[in-house]
Amino acid sequence: MVYLSTAYPLYFAMNAANDGELSLILEIDSDLLDRGLLYPDEDFVAQVYLHQGPPGMELSVVHKHVRRRLKQWRHLWVQSIEGMGNCCYRGTIPTSAITRYCLFDAVARPAIAMMAMDPSISIMNYKFCKGKYLGLMAWLFGDQEIIETESFPGIRGVTEANPEISKIMRDREEYWKQESANRAGVEVHEKNT
Q: Where are the alpha helices (DSSP H) in 1-41?
């Protein structure tokens, strides 16, 4: 399986790179993939199964069960992307499906690296942080000018009532505007045809 992610590619890329190496993120045109080879991420299925299955089951047991029988949940790959930002592809990604790639230097951009280093890849985490993850990927590839950092929709109304929190949020916004303006440590390349 090749794991595909709309949310966590920088996290996975940084974990795959050795210390000091650049992280590589590939952009894939999913319309060029064989839909019959797409599967849900087994973590997505296991988390859904755990909450809908018999009480008292352990995630590790459910995960093993799901992994052995992933084919029966193949039809849930779209829900896996929508619910957790991940799916997988059973086979080799054709080079024709690669559209661009991004090289990221975590040493040069520690704040952005920390933003991507999330300890919890789960349905709940994705529900609350989806905007941040998708915004970060859009910024990395140059499709968005400012890094989206807002994780919780509707937080503005809550913070506006508290001047101290409101100031913290404005300062945070200003910091990320400055970080966004600096493209050092980020290189985006079109795939050579």
A: 9-16
Are 90 and 42 a contacting pair, CB within 8 Å?
Answer: no
Query: Could you tell me what percentage of the chain is helix, strand and coil, using 3-state DSSP and rounding each to the nearest 5?
Result: 55, 15, 30
**Percentage of the chain surpassing pLDDT 70?**
91
Confidence of residue 173 (pLDDT cuts 50, 70, 90): confident
Judge whether 160 and 114 are in contact, CB under 8 Å: no
Nearest-CA neighbor of 6 among 112, 80, 106? 80
Strands 38-40 and 86-89: antiparallel
Measured CA to CA in angstroms, residue 51 lies from 82, 137, 176 at distances of: 18, 30, 36
Q: Which two tokens stand for residue 25?
A: 């993120």
In this predicted structure, what is the pLDDT of residue 66? 87
Residues 36-75 pLDDT 10s: 999 999 999 999 887 776 677 787 888 888 889 999 999 9
pTM for the structure as a whole: 0.85
Give the relative orientation of helices 123-140 and 77-84 as an angle to the nearest 10 degrees: 80
Going by C-alpha positions, the residue among 26, 70, 10 that lies closest to residue 44 is 70
